[in-house]
Design brief:
Largest sheet: none
Strand content: under 5%
Helix content: over 70%
Shape: rod-shaped
Radius of gyration: 22 Å
Amino acid sequence: MARRAVLPHVQERLHTRLMFHHDRDVIEVRLTMVMTILGNARELKQRTGMSIK
C-alpha cells in the first residue's frame, strides 16, 4: 500500500487541533478543581460558620 504525503499546512492544522484539545482538557480539570473547592468551602461555612478567607 502506498503511503500518502501529508501537506505541511494540513499537518500543522492537525497539530494545532491536538494542542488545543490538550489545553481544553487542562482548563476543564482546573475548573473542576475550583468548583469542587468552592463547594467544599461553602459547605464548611454552612456547617461551622467558619470562612476560608
